[in-house]
Amino acid sequence: MISMGGCAGKDPNVAQPKPGKAVSVSQKSAAGQQGLVEKEKLGTWQGDIPSYPLKGSENTREGAATVAAFWVSALNYAMFTGDTKPLEAATGPEQPAFKMVKRLQEHYKEKGRYFGKPLTFSLEQQELVDEKTFDTQFHIKESAYTLERGENIPAAEGVAKIRTTYTGSKWIVVNSNSEEMSEK
After folding, report:
1. How far apart are CA 82 and CA 107, in angstroms?
2. Quick check: 5 and 108 in contact, CB under 8 A?
3. For a FRET experiment, which of 85, 94, 96, 125 has its CA 20 to 30 Å from that of 24?
4. pLDDT in tens, 89-141
């Protein structure tokens, strides 16, 4: 299981996935399988490709929050498509967050696409760490989904914290951590 993901933020500068169109899923009804999804047929991402938000160049609290929300949206997109370029646009290879990008690439190669509903998130809090760094915390809800290779993953939720730093021209994600996701 990838430790965090997300989809639609409410900022118009962050590309929004189109829930319900990306994949086709159904609920299993067998005893002990309630809430797990199974593939009916292969699906692909049909939403817009997330692009780095315009507000990401503004050295403001809102700019930092917009980039953090973009990161979660881009992570969700990458989970369904394997395309990590939007994530890479918001970080650099020298940043700890880039390790998550590499893990996602490996996970995608090993386990394949995700089939289910896009992950959802809501902003919980934002904390100023220093004059150029914010920690933004999101509550993440993950519906049950199936991996392309057949593994069923139950619904879960948890908290994700994304650290952004202003480089002088734009906000970048330097780290992202999540608390243990608990099954729901």
Report:
1. 9
2. no
3. 85
4. 998 778 888 888 888 888 888 888 788 777 788 889 899 999 899 999 999 88
Contacting residues for 91 by C-beta, under 8 A, at least 6 apart: 71, 97, 98, 101, 172, 173, 174
State residue 179's pLDDT score: 53
* Residue percentage of the chain with pLDDT more than 90: 27
DSSP collapsed to 3 states, the chain: CCCCCCCCCCCCCCCCCCCCCCCEEEECCCCCCCCCEEEEECCCCCCCCCCCCHHHHCCCHHHHHHHHHHHHHHHHHHHHHCCCHHHHHCCCCCCCHHHHHHHHHHHHHHHCCEEECCCEEEEEEEEEEECCEEEEEEEEEECCEEECCCCEECCEEEEEEEEEEECCCCEEEEEEEECCCEEC
Question: How far is 160 from 181, CA to CA, in rounded Å?
Answer: 9
